[in-house]
């Protein structure tokens, strides 16, 4: 275990020393997305994961200790990509000229798109939260990162002063939106569509409400 309580990465992913080994590892991660999306974490079988990745079962176990190790490797990949995406979103010069309402709605739409593309990961994530609290750490990191960037953006508009409470509220708003979208992606409720403007508008309003932002002109 690391000092933060998270197992060291070497405990999850066995080192890849050759290009062929790295390619096989990447295929296994891609296969995990597909198998987890179709069968969930609990229903996915190592033999099927290996076959989907065009690897032997022995090849799987040379790279990962077990199926849970595969999930955590997938999570690390997701975390690295999405952390960069968050910074890219807020660093985009277009944010300077967009209204906060537009930015909030973009965040909602981006969340729908990302979680839809990574539905296999998120299905496995939800199943694993029931028995392994460590799966929350990377998700919480991303939510905190977005919350901090969001709070900084709001402060830059002169609406409120920076305070730890504002960052926490932005973090909680992000988590609330994420929870709603995960539920939609996994269970596909029929009574609304993320393509409906009103749905996006109401979800975007969560950021306003949680951060107690003053009323603005449209």
From TrEMBL:
The keyword Zinc does not apply. Residues 22-82 form the HTH tetR-type domain. InterPro entries: Homeodomain-like_sf (IPR009057), HTH-type_TetR-like_transc_reg (IPR050109), HTH_TetR (IPR001647). Keywords: DNA-binding, Transcription, Transcription regulation. One of its GO terms (molecular function) is DNA-binding transcription factor activity. Pfam families: TetR_N. Residues 45-64 bind DNA. It comes from the Bacteria. This is HTH tetR-type domain-containing protein. It comes from Sphingopyxis witflariensis.
